[in-house]
Design brief:
alpha/beta; binds nicotinamide-adenine-dinucleotide; 17% strand; 14 helices; Rossmann fold; 6-stranded mixed beta sheet; 7-stranded mixed beta sheet
């Protein structure tokens, strides 16, 4: 018996519309570029949008309907690439925005990919492991007409993890009749995943932060205080790598709030506490803070690594960080960007700062296609090389045009896709 359509969208008012943010950023960036108007209009649109409603049997025998999306924003530079998000806040507009940002991110760091994103309206914490497996496999089978190592390659995002990527790889492989590890990235290493993929996004955020601090003339790393919103894949690995390098991480948070110690948190101990208690609250030797308080704490670097629409015109005037390094996709609205810029707060934009994840996903895909695997040292060396090259491209563009790093990153990326589109021509 089908009992409910699980598409409750409980927090829509609270979060600014991500697609409006993505389009506003695009419209601003193209004003600085000399690109044909037809090309500008073409790149503004998602290429394909797929909506699917599908049943999942719960452990108690009920069948519940779920809604999922997959959007391919662009395939101009190669197969579309982008994560899959499980959250009750997923909307088609959010997925469109995330797909568009993937196009620009892949283009900025010069990967041979277009941009995509997927999402399912579900709270993964409300499901058993067996239910999550059935949901993931059914969603994956619905995506099979779109997905392949040469057409569209998913990866993890908020609410999804390597085990789910293994189920996607297995579902696809069982359908075609042979193993195809390159169809999805972010898999566990024992089924064709890459060493370093789990850590890649958080590590890349810190690689960009270190470069930004160096370029901005900060040398004294023990005195740099870092505040991180989000303690999932991106936030926890960013915190761990920053701590390993000798920086002071003074506050971290998850969806239920955070903890703060102005003298620095013992991040390995915080990770252990979080693994045991599934919460940060009441960590010994730190004060509890709300997410709203955390974003305006005194610090040198703020790393939003949770979700989009967190830094808005309401809190941007009160942010005390000297620098923001965006771990999340789209955490800052365009109005907030202007306020931060006016206040002289330096911002390393998402499509550069969190590109480490898709860069190592690309390495994973290359390794799977070649059936030849690299050691961790090689992964991190190549990751650093590509990130620093992309940082340099962005900083040069910013300097040449007298624009912010966000604008420069978007301009470099849009220009690359636009030129490729002009070379390919409009079909037919
Ligand atoms: P995750 O699900 O592993 O972790 C998300 C974290 O954010 C959790 O700690 C969660 O509790 C917290 N959170 C969720 N909603 C929140 C809210 N309203 N306020 C404060 N905290 C909240 O997800 P992730 O993979 O770490 O992704 C985080 C962000 O980074 C997303 O914007 C994602 O698109 C982006 N990103 C992820 C990757 C990747 O490789 N995983 C790559 C690039 C960008």
């Amino acid at each position: 018996m089908v009992v409910a359509l699980n598409n409750v969208n409980h927090a829509l008012e609270a979060i600014p519309n991500a697609y409006q943010t993505a389009l506003a950023q695009y419209d601003r960036a193209v004003q600085h570029l000399d690109i044909d108007d037809n090309v500008i209009e073409y790149m503004r649109w998602p290429r394909r949008e797929f909506t699917v409603n599908f049943p999942v049997r719960r452990d108690d025998g009920r069948v519940e309907m779920f809604t999922g999306y997959r959007v391919h924003h662009s395939t101009v530079l190669g197969p579309s690439k982008g994560g899959i998000r499980y959250s009750l806040d997923v909307t088609l507009d959010e997925v469109r925005a995330l797909a568009m940002w993937m196009t620009w991110k892949c283009a900025l760091v010069q990967l041979p990919y277009g941009g995509a994103k997927g999402g399912v309206l579900v709270d993964p914490k409300s499901m058993s492991q067996a239910e999550l497996e059935r949901l993931t496999r059914r969603y994956a089978s619905e995506l099979i007409p779109l997905m392949s190592p040469h057409a569209d390659i998913p990866a993890p995002d908020m609410g999804t993890n390597p085990q789910m990527m293994a189920w996607i790889m297995d579902t696809y492989s069982m359908t075609v009749g042979y193993s195809v590890p390159a169809v999805v990235t972010g898999k566990p290493v024992n089924v064709g995943g890459s060493l370093g993929r789990n850590e890649a996004t958080g590590r890349g955020v810190i690689v960009c932060m270190v470069e930004a601090l160096k370029r901005q003339g900060y040398t004294d790393k023990e005195n740099i205080r870092i505040v991180i919103q989000g303690f999932g894949n991106v936030g926890s690995h960013a915190a761990a790598y920053a701590h390993d390098l000798g920086y002071k991480v003074t506050a971290v948070s998850d969806v239920n709030g955070g903890i703060h110690n102005p003298n620095g948190l013992d991040i390995p101990a915080v990770r252990k506490y979080y693994a045991e208690n599934r919460m940060l609250k009441d960590f010994p030797g730190a004060d509890n803070v709300t997410n709203a308080e955390l974003l305006v704490l005194p610090c040198d670097v703020l790393v939003p690594a949770a979700m989009e629409g967190q830094i808005t015109r309401n809190n941007a005037p009160n942010i005390k960080a000297k620098m923001i390094v965006e771990g999340a996709n789209g955490p800052t609205t365009p109005e907030a960007d202007d306020i931060l810029d006016d206040r002289g707060i330096y911002l390393v934009p998402d499509i550069l700062a969190n590109a480490g994840g898709v860069i190592v996903s690309y390495f994973e895909w290359v390794q799977d296609l070649q059936a030849f695997f690299w050691d961790e040292e090689e992964v991190y060396r190549q990751l650093q090389r590509i990130l620093l090259r992309s940082y340099d491209t962005t900083a040069n563009m910013a300097e040449k045009h007298g624009v912010t790093m966000r604008m420069a990153a978007q301009m470099s990326a849009i220009e690359r896709v636009g030129k490729a589109l002009m070379t390919r021509g409009f079909y037919p």
